[in-house]
Structures are given as structure tokens and as C-alpha cells.
Amino acid sequence: MLDVLIAGAGPVGLWLAAELRLHGVEVTVVERRAAPDGRSRAVGMQAGTLDTFATRGLAERFIERGTPVPTGHFGAATTRLDFSTTGAVHPFMLALGQSVTEQLLEEHAVAVGARVLRGQEVVSLTQGPDAVEVVIRAGGTHRTVQARWVVGCDGTRSAVRQAAGIDFPGQDTTMTGWLADVELDDPPTGPLSATGPAGSFLAAPIGDGVHRLAGLSTATMHHGTGEPLTLDEVREQARALLGRDLGIRNPRWLSRYGNATRQAARYRAGRVLVAGDAAHMFFPAGGQGMNLGIQDATNLGWKLAATLQGRAPDGLLDSYETERRPAGRAVIDNTRAQLALFAAANPEQIALREVWSAALTEPRTNHQWARRIAGFDDPIPADTQPGGHPLNGTRLAGLALNTPAGAPTAHPLMHHGRPLLLDLGGTRTPCPTDGLEQRAGTVNTEAAQAIWRDVTAVLIRPDARIAWVSTDTDRRRRAADCLATLRTLCR
């Protein structure tokens, strides 16, 4: 019997497999495609994802292959978001084709022991009290396997979600944009955006001499997603908004995409869970889709491993849905708002875009939305947040340390994937005596930033979310509080 069967070898499924292997879980990934998809659907890796990869020592692998982009966009607002203000260890978006991202993630997942089987897809499943029976089709044959848990990371048309009876309510496409991966004879010197009565136009390099162009034309935005996109249409949009066509040639990929928006009614049905595009779909604004899914997988991995291994406190696995559904809803809301700016055509809509562009020149507003788009301010429901300190429940970003080992931030201390206790008060918190000390890493260090100077200890979850912050100088009282919080994460 398999421990966990994952359907879908996209970025989310591969990252989840690697996270589960970090805790010794046996994982098999099945993928319908016989070979990796050479098209780069997602080309923006946000700072939040890079920081997540840094907690496992992997960020540099991606940075070496991509192009850092220090600013981003919110819809077609003319004021760009400044990622340098986010506090991230890697304060930029990385332009990197999804095909490269998948290659690197598959190499990582296989290296840590995950099994990836291509040309195989889930056809149906039946749940029992202790396992899920799954029918898998490979070519013209079918076989049945049993798994203790099944996770659908198999896209918006997820066979796993449908077989589990999880509804996917929302709206169908009412408007379409387009994208084109092309070569340019007259490329811009950096990321380029333009707006006007004709719609919107974006251009950014994605490597190997290729640029990703994306836009929404007010003349064609009601064309169906299946209607072919021509290079002439792309050139016409560029000329209408830029006054030149950038020498567009040699298309690698031309496609239309819609604003269909849906979210799974639940993220868990018994022993079946969904993550990534199987759990949510929305207009691809701001490069948030893949990044939201990576955070789903990071949140789920350690919780599912603890549940399978009998280490999970009551309700831990249910907190996956409690925490990630609001995060998905928040992205759905902001992508709808961005679409309104992209599609601005009448005077009132254009005025809205101009007002929002002006609002983003205010540093605090720009900082807020840069963090949100970068993936750091995904909300945690108020009734689930640990109390006592404003940092509790937030994602760790840029905690600079003075450590004997020379680790500049907390991220290199999290490669083990366990909770991390940082003693920042100069007096070491006594280690718990009931065996839980083996479930967490402990480091005695000092914070290098003034904002942390009153903090004596911080407990960080495996997904880099802060579980507990203390300003108590009494080391034994601090240890008792820490142990109480640690018991909510593992046992």
C-alpha cells in the first residue's frame, strides 16, 4: 500500500512530494503527460516562493536559471510594485519558464526519493476507512492501487477532485486575454507595460532570448479561449499601445486565456485532498497561480506527514483547509480587481485605473500590495491565529541573525523541515523533557534587526509561518509557553 499518491507532476505536485519525503513518507506521483510540457505557462516566481525554496536550501538553483525582476504590476496600473520593500530574503520576482521550474523540482523530488510515473492518470477512486482504492490508466491498461492518502494536484479539471465529489463552484469565462512567447528584434531594456483605450500590454524576458508578451485587447476580449491567436493580432496590440511592434517574430507559444474563476468547496474529503489549480482557478494576473499552489503544498506537506505518522494533534490536518481557502479567496479577489484595470475601456473605468495608479505612489500602499502579490500577506482567519503578539500567524520574512554558524537568516536553519525554536534573549529556553525536543530544531542566536530586539524567543512552523513569539524574560515560563504551542504542531 502506498503512503501517499499524488496526481499531477506540475510544480505543486512535485513540491508536495519533496516535502513529504523530507519527513520520510513514501510518495508516488502519477502524471498524465508522457513527457514534460515544454510550454512555460507560469513564468513569474514570486519572492514568497523563493523564500520557501530557501528554507530547503534550493533557491539558488532557480535564481541561477532565471532573471530577477525588481518590480511587478497590479493589473494595468502604471505605478509598479517595489519588491525591494517586502523584507524578503530574495526581494524580487524571478522570470523563469515553468518548464525549467518543473525540471528542477522533479530533479529535487526524485533525488530525495519520490517516485514519478509518467503516462499514467487517475480514472476513479473509492474511499474506505483506512485507505483509498485508486484506478489508474496507463496506455490502454488499467490497474488498481491502494493509498492511505490521495492528493489531487492535477489542474483545474482535476480527476481526483471530481472523483472525490468535491464541488468546484464559480463563474465561467466572460472575458479573455492573450499571451505570446516570442523573440523580439527590438526588445525593451526591462519589463514593459502600457495601457490605453485599446487595452493593456505587458512584456518581460523569460530567458533564452524569449519574451513573454501578455495583454488584453478591448476589441477582442470577448473572443473565446479556443479562437486561435495570430501574430498579427499581437503586433497590432503592440503598435496601438507602444507605437511600434518590437519586431515580434518566431512565436514559441500563442494562446488565449479566460477569467473563469472557481474555488473548491472544500480542500479535503475524507482521505482525499486537493491543492494548487485543482483547488482554485482565476485570471492569471500578477503571476500568483503557481505561487499560491506552492504555498498550498508547503502548508499541507508537514501536516499530512504528521497525520500519517501518528504525530499530528487533533485538527492539524483540518487546518490546511482552514488556512488555505482564505488565502485562495484573497487571490481570487485581487485578480478580479486587476482584471477590471486591464479591461478599462470607458471613461469611468480608465479613471479608476488612473486613481489606483496614483494610490500606489504612496509608499505604504505600494508596500502592502507588493507584499501581498509576492505572497507574504496571505491571511490567516482571526479565530485561528495564536494570540499574544502581532507577529504570531504571519509568514517569516527577512529575519536577519547573528549566529555562531554564520547563518545570515533563519532560512538555512530550516532545511530539516521541523519546527524551529530561535532563542533570541541571551538566555537559553530550557528544552522540553517529554520527547518533543526531537521534533524541533533549537538555535541560540541574536536578531540583527531592531524590530526583534524585545523578542526573547520565536517558534517557526515548518512552512515558515510564525507559531509563537515571546517577549518574556523568564526562561522557565517561556519554556512552558513554547511547549504548549509546540504541542499544537506535533506530538
The percent range for strand residues is: 25-35%
Helix proportion: 25-40%
What general outline do the C-alpha atoms trace?
globular
Name the poorly predicted regions.
Answer: none
Number of strands: 27
**Mean pLDDT metric:** 91
What distance separates the N and C termini?
Answer: 25 Å
Radius of gyration (Å): 23 Å
Q: Give the number of helices.
A: 11
Secondary structure category: alpha+beta
How is the main sheet built?
8 strands, mixed
Instruction: Please give the oligomerization state of what you see.
Output: single chain
Structural write-up:
The chain is an alpha+beta fold. It contains eleven helices and 27 strands. Strands 1, 2, 8, 9, 10, 11, 19 and 20 form an eight-stranded mixed sheet that branches. It has a five-stranded antiparallel sheet with strand order 14-15-16-13-17, covered by helices on one side. Strands 24-23-26-27 form a four-stranded mixed sheet, with helices on one face. A hairpin with a 2-residue loop joins strand 14 and strand 15. The longest helix is centred in the last third of the chain and has 25 residues, at 318-342. The model has no long low-confidence stretch (mean pLDDT 91).
